C-alpha cells in the first residue's frame, strides 16, 4: 500500500472504531437477561475472531515460507507480525471474557474446555514469539518458527469446536454454530457486525505496520552483521584486505 | 443491573488502553527505524 | 594477535538463552494446563444423565447442567434448595454458597457437587448462559410458557 492509501485506510479504521464504540455503549440496547454486561461481547467476539484470523495468517505465511518456490523472508516476518498482533487480541479476549463471566456465570475463570484451550492458544503463541528471538540467522529462524507455527495452529480448530465437542460452560457460537442459526438481531447484530469489521481493519493496520517495522529492523541488523563480519576480517588481517 | 457497568467500563478501558499502548509503541519504533534507515543510506 | 583485539561478541547469545527459557516456560505452562488440569476439569452432565447414572456416580464430584424448575427455589441463609430439570428428569439440589445475580426460576444453571442419596449437594452454582441475545425477550420464554 502506498503512503496515502495507508493513511486513508487507517483513518477510516479509526472512524469505524469510534462509531462501533458509540453503537456498543449507547445506541445498542441492553440484553433482557444479562443487562449491560452483554456489551462486553461486542469486543470479546471480534477479538476472538481476530485471534483465529491472525494465527491463520501466521500459519499460511509459515507454509509459504516452507515451500521452496515461495520462500521469502517477508513471509517469515509477516508470520511473526501477525502472531504478535494475534497474541495481543487473544490476551484481550481472555480478559474481556473473564470480566463478562464474573457477573453472568458467577466466576472469573473456570477450567472449562473452551477457556482452557484458549489459554493454551495464548501461551503457545507467546512461546512462538519468544522462539522467534532465539535464532542466529534468519534462515534458522524461518525454519524453526514456520514449523512451530504450523503445529501451534492445530489448537485453533480445537478452540473453535470445543463448545460443540464437549459439554462446557461456555455458550456455543451465536452466529457460527453448527446449524448456522443466527441468534442475534436488529441493532445488536449491526453493532456486532460493525465491530467485527472495524477490528478486522485494525488488525490489518497493526499487522502491516508491524511487518514494515520488522523489515526495517531486519535490514538494519543485516547491515550491522555485515559490518561486524567486515570488522572481524579486517582485525584478523591487518593488511587492508577488506575495505568497509 | 447497574453494577454491570463497572465490568463494561473496565473491559472497554483496558482494551482501549492496551491498543493505544501497542499502537503508540509501534508508531514510535517505526518512526525511529525509518529515520535510521534513511540516515544510513 | 590476540582474541581481545577482535570485536567483542555482542550480548546476543545471552538474549537467545533468555528467550529460549521464555519459550520453554510457555510450553511448560501449556503442558501443565493440558495434563494437570485435564484431571481437574469437572465434566458437565445433563440432569437426565446424572439421574440415570446416580449409582455409578457414587459420591464423585461432577457438574450437573439443567434448568431451575419454577417455583421450587427455597432460599436459606447459606444457599438455596431447588430442583433442576432436563430431558424429562428432575433432581433436588441442596446448594450452599453465595447468591448469584441471574439465579431465578427457569435459569439455566450448572451445579458442582455430588450425590448424597437422592439429593445433589452442591458447593458451587454457576449460571450457564445461552448463545442468544435479545433486548426484549428472555431466552427462558419456553420454560416460563410451559409451566405457567
Describe this structure in words.
The complex is a heterotrimer of chains A (244), B (41) and C (148). Chain A is an all-alpha fold. Chain A contains seven helices and no strands. Chain A has a single domain (3-236), classed as Up-down Bundle (Four Helix Bundle (Hemerythrin (Met), subunit A)). Chain A is elongated, with a radius of gyration of 22 Å. The two termini of chain A are 35 Å apart. By secondary structure, chain B is mainly α. Helices cover 90% and strands 0% of the residues of chain B. The longest helix of chain B is centred in the middle third of the chain and has 37 residues, at 4-40. Chain C has two domains: 9-40; 44-147, Nucleic acid-binding proteins (OB fold (Dihydrolipoamide Acetyltransferase, E2P), Beta Barrel). Helices cover 31% and strands 32% of the residues of chain C. Chain C has helices spanning 12-40, 47-52, 54-57, 141-147; strands at 44-46, 62-68, 74-76, 79-86, 89-96, 108-116, 119-127. Chain C has a five-stranded mixed β-barrel with strand order 2-4-5-7-6. In chain C, strand 4 and strand 5 (89-96) form a beta hairpin. Chain C is elongated. Chains in contact: A-B, A-C. The interface between A and C is large, with 51 and 50 residues.
**Largest inter-chain contact set:** A-C, 51 and 50 residues
Largest sheet of chain C, if any? 5 strands, mixed, barrel
Q: CATH topology of the largest domain in chain C, anyone?
A: OB fold (Dihydrolipoamide Acetyltransferase, E2P)
**What is the SS-derived class of chain B?**
mainly alpha
Q: CATH superfamily membership of the largest domain in chain C, which one?
A: Nucleic acid-binding proteins
Distance between the termini of chain C: 97 Å
Proportion in β-strands of chain B: under 5%
Low-confidence segments of chain C, given as residue ranges, are none
The coarse silhouette of chain C is elongated
CATH architect. name of the largest domain in chain C: Beta Barrel
The strand line-up of the biggest sheet of chain C is 2-4-5-7-6
Number of strands of chain C: 7
Amino acid at each position: 500500500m502506498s503512503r496515502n492509501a495507508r493513511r486513508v485506510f487507517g483513518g477510516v479504521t479509526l472512524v469505524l472504531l469510534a462509531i462501533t464504540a458509540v453503537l456498543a455503549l449507547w445506541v445498542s440496547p441492553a440484553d433482557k437477561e444479562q443487562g449491560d454486561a452483554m456489551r462486553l461481547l461486542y469486543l470479546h467476539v471480534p477479538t476472538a475472531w481476530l485471534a483465529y484470523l491472525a494465527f491463520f495468517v501466521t500459519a499460511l505465511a509459515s507454509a509459504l515460507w516452507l515451500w521452496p518456490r515461495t520462500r521469502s523472508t517477508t513471509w517469515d516476518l509477516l508470520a511473526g507480525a501477525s502472531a504478535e498482533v494475534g497474541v495481543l487480541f487473544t490476551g484481550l479476549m481472555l480478559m474481556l471474557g473473564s470480566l463478562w463471566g464474573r457477573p453472568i456465570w458467577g466466576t472469573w475463570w473456570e477450567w472449562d474446555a473452551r477457556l482452557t484451550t484458549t489459554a493454551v492458544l495464548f501461551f503457545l503463541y507467546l512461546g512462538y514469539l519468544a522462539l522467534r528471538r532465539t535464532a542466529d540467522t534468519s534462515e534458522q529462524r524461518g525454519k524453526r518458527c514456520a514449523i512451530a507455527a504450523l503445529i501451534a495452529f492445530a489448537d485453533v480448530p480445537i478452540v473453535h469446536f470445543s463448545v460443540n465437542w464437549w459439554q462446557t460452560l461456555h455458550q456455543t457460537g451465536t452466529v457460527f454454530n453448527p446449524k448456522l442459526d443466527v441468534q442475534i438481531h436488529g441493532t445488536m447484530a449491526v453493532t456486532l457486525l460493525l465491530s467485527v469489521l472495524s477490528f478486522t481493519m485494525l488488525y490489518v493496520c497493526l499487522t502491516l505496520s508491524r511487518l514494515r517495522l520488522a523489515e526495517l529492523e531486519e535490514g538494519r541488523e543485516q547491515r550491522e552483521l555485515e559490518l561486524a563480519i567486515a570488522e572481524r576480517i579486517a582485525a584478523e588481517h591487518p593488511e587492508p584486505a577488506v575495505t568497509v | 443491573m447497574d453494577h454491570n457497568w463497572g465490568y463494561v467500563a473496565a473491559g472497554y478501558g483496558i482494551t482501549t488502553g492496551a491498543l493505544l499502548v501497542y499502537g503508540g509503541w509501534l508508531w514510535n519504533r517505526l518512526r525511529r527505524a525509518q529515520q535510521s534507515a534513511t540516515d544510513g543510506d | 594477535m590476540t582474541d581481545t583485539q577482535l570485536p567483542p561478541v555482542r550480548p546476543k547469545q545471552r538474549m537467545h538463552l533468555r528467550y529460549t527459557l521464555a519459550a520453554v516456560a510457555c510450553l511448560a505452562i501449556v503442558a501443565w494446563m493440558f495434563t494437570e488440569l485435564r484431571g481437574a476439569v469437572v465434566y458437565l452432565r445433563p440432569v437426565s444423565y446424572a439421574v440415570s447414572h446416580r449409582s455409578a456416580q457414587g459420591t464423585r464430584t461432577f457438574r450437573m447442567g439443567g434448568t431451575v424448575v419454577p417455583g421450587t427455589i427455597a432460599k436459606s441463609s447459606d444457599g438455596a434448595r431447588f430442583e433442576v430439570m432436563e430431558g424429562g428428569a428432575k433432581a433436588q439440589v441442596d446448594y450452599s454458597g453465595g447468591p448469584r445475580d441471574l439465579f431465578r426460576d427457569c435459569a439455566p444453571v450448572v451445579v458442582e457437587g455430588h450425590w448424597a442419596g437422592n439429593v445433589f449437594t452442591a458447593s458451587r452454582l454457576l449460571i450457564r448462559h445461552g448463545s442468544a441475545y435479545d433486548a426484549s425477550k428472555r431466552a427462558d420464554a419456553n420454560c416460563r410458557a410451559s409451566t405457567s
